[in-house]
Design a protein that fits this description.
The complex is a heterodimer.
Chain A: E1 2-6, H1 10-15, E2 22-28, H2 31-34, H3 40-52, E3 56-63, H4 69-78, H5 80-85, E4 88-92, H6 95-104, E5 109-112, E6 114-123, E7 127-133, E8 146-147, H7 148-155, E9 172-177, E10 180-185, H8 190-196, E11 220-223, E12 229-231, E13 242-244, H9 248-265, H10 273-281, E14 305-307, H11 317-326, E15 331-334, E16 341-344, H12 360-364, E17 370-372, E18 375-378, H13 396-400
Parallel strand pairs in A: 2-3, 2-4, 4-5, 9-13
Antiparallel strand pairs in A: 1-6, 6-7, 7-8, 9-10, 11-12, 11-13, 14-17, 15-16
Helix pairs in contact in A: 4-6
Chain B: E1 2-6, H1 9-14, E2 22-28, H2 31-34, H3 39-52, E3 56-63, H4 69-75, E4 84-88, H5 91-100, E5 105-108, E6 110-119, E7 124-130, E8 141-143
Parallel strand pairs in B: 2-3, 2-4, 4-5
Antiparallel strand pairs in B: 1-6, 6-7, 7-8
Classes of the chains: A alpha/beta, B alpha/beta.
């Protein structure tokens, strides 16, 4: 992974902006996120800070791999009008991502926020460490690594993300959840706030980086004054809301959804961490649905990714990640109703698509239907034909004859 | 992305002991594969050749990132039979294995050239931040998956040292 540290303070960043600027925040979702200075939550915090100080932020753009210039071009093409309106882009990326954005948006002011030091590791004990520094750092190759704290102190840079103490306190309102008052952010997403308050709400298709999809229906809740059950992931908080997250009807419905997923996808789906957790939580040991399901072939044609359609619950996270984060739209839904399936390319093998291998789909898949390929094999001798050697001058036709 | 170049086969075998070394070959499936030095193809190429020439290769593995300890833990590599590891990755991957397998000889068989930006649609990558000794590589472009140098420049970018 590439190791980067924040190089600008918040005040320095503001000095590069004018009050009239229409700002786009552009963040990478890979290495620099693991360095703690990028990602959707960091963009949201920066957006709040800038808005509080009177700046206009028109868009937050999350990109799966910012060092792929073709992905940046696709993000631009998808929202040409919006980027035409923008006058400044703040990049929460490494210097490579910054270069890509400058390449794609030559007429817009681009403000980089990070200094890149070289490549390194993600260590279980120390987090991100720099092991292979670039020459301008004056540091030597060190397998034990230099911690980010060391780099910040040595090069007089900025620790962590922009001053979190300057993040404005959001306006809070009180709603009632399961009969108890709860302080939540005004106009925020209901599911986000319930989860932030440590409430266990099952959800399979929602991730704050991807936004609401509303496909799995596991997060259904009851809201006073609204007809039927509503997905909390697609609901904005309103003053005086009265929410019920658990009762007999909701539990019965969630159990039914889980049983249908298992019936449709087979027993193997229970190995998925999220599904297993909720099956245990709702004490589901038997399944009342017995849907016949044809076993589909696993697609391992690609060098990097394996796609097992039998494990797909049609949550749409991979479709959303491929479209929104990478801009490739390699994964899509096909057919309608009960015949809906996810497909790659024009219903082709992964290997035959123009997948950029940014791994966003695998990262966001909740059931391991798309996983990175990992091969490990013990060698106990190769087949005899690998031991045959041909004289160098022998031609193909001579061999065949 | 990190661009590294693999040493020649002759240079790699100079670091090996045919009698004593029990070799595990680990290949990175991300940057190194894109630059033509890792992935399943390079692993097979090196593995076949070493076995054919009588080296004791005990294990072969492809890992998603060689530079990430959590990924390494998830991979559950069983390379206890080996006493030597060849890592087909950049030096960050080599560092990760050196730390995690202190009782084994971990060979560095690649050299870091620089940090690159890529265009996977056009199958090219460009050196933007070169490593020490490779300053002349700044701005040069290569073909992805092979590492073959390209004569013409396709990614228009002003590279400054």
């Amino acid at each position: 992974m590439i190791i980067s540290v924040r190089s600008l303070s918040y005040d320095e960043l503001k000095r590069n902006l004018s009050r009239d600027d229409k700002i786009v925040l552009w963040s990478c979702d890979t290495c620099v996120k693991h360095c703690g200075i990028a990602g959707m939550d960091k963009m949201t915090a920066l957006e709040d800070m800038l808005k509080e100080d009177g700046y206009t932020v028109i868009k937050k753009e999350l990109i799966s791999e910012s060092c792929q210039v073709n992905l940046a071009k696709k993000h631009k093409a998808a929202q040409e009008d919006l980027f035409n309106e923008a006058t400044a882009i703040i990049t929460l990326t490494c210097e490579l991502g910054y270069q890509c954005v400058r390449n794609v948006f030559p007429k817009i002011k681009v403000i980089g926020t990070a200094k890149t030091f070289g490549s390194g590791n993600f260590s279980n004990k120390k987090g991100p460490i720099l092991t292979s520094p670039l020459p301008n750092t004056g540091l030597e190759l060190n397998p034990e690594g230099y911690s980010l704290k060391n780099l910040v102190e040595t090069f007089d840079l900025q620790q962590g993300f922009f001053d979190f103490d300057k993040v404005p306190n959001p306006e809070k309102i009180t709603i009632t959840v399961d009969g108890k008052p709860l302080n939540v952010k005004k106009d925020a997403n209901l599911l986000d706030e319930l989860l932030a308050n440590r409430m266990k709400i099952p959800h399979l298709c929602y991730d704050s980086s991807l936004g609401a999809i509303g496909a799995c229906r596991m997060c259904l809740v009851k809201i006073e004054g609204k007809r039927g059950l509503v997905p909390s992931c697609c609901t904005q908080i309103e003053e005086g809301m009265v929410v019920t997250t658990e009762d007999e009807e909701i539990e019965k419905l969630r159990k039914s959804i889980l049983q249908m997923i298992v019936a449709e996808c087979g027993e193997e789906i229970q190995q998925s961490r999220d599904i297993r957790f909720w099956l245990r939580r709702y004490k589901i040991t038997e399944n009342r649905f017995k849907l016949s399901k044809q076993e589909e072939a696993v697609d391992d044609s690609d060098e990097v990714l394996i796609r097992d359609p039998n494990r797909c619950i049609l949550c749409g996270r991979c479709v959303s990640a491929c479209a929104k984060l990478s801009g490739q739209k390699v994964i899509n839904f096909a057919n309608r109703g009960s015949n809906t399936v996810t497909i790659t390319g024009l219903n082709d093998n992964f290997a035959n698509t123009d997948c950029a291998h940014c791994l966003a789909c695998a990262h966001y898949c909740p059931t391991n239907a798309i996983t990175p390929k990992a091969i490990s094999k013990k060698i106990s001798g190769y087949p005899f034909w690998t031991l045959i050697t041909y004289p160098k001058k022998m031609t193909r036709s001579t061999r065949a004859g | 992305m990190i661009f590294s170049k693999i040493e020649s086969y002759e240079d790699i075998v100079k670091k090996l002991d045919k009698k004593e070394d029990k070799i595990a070959i680990i290949s990175c499936n991300t940057c190194a594969r894109t630059c033509g030095n890792g992935g399943i193809n390079k692993l097979n190429e090196l593995g076949f050749r070493l076995i054919r020439e009588g080296y004791n290769v005990t294990d072969e593995a492809v890992v998603l990132y060689a530079c990430s300890e959590p990924i390494l833990r998830e991979s559950k590599l069983n390379i206890d039979d080996a006493n030597t590891i060849i890592v087909l990755s950049c030096s960050a991957g080599w560092s990760c294995f050196t730390r995690n397998y202190p009782d084994k000889k971990v060979l560095m068989v690649t050299e870091d050239i620089g940090l690159v930006i890529s265009d996977t649609d056009r199958e090219i990558f460009k050196v933007v931040m070169p490593y020490k000794g490779h300053e002349s590589e700044l701005g040069k472009e290569y073909r992805t998956y092979t590492g073959e140098p390209l004569a013409s420049k396709k990614i228009k970018l002003r590279c400054v040292a």
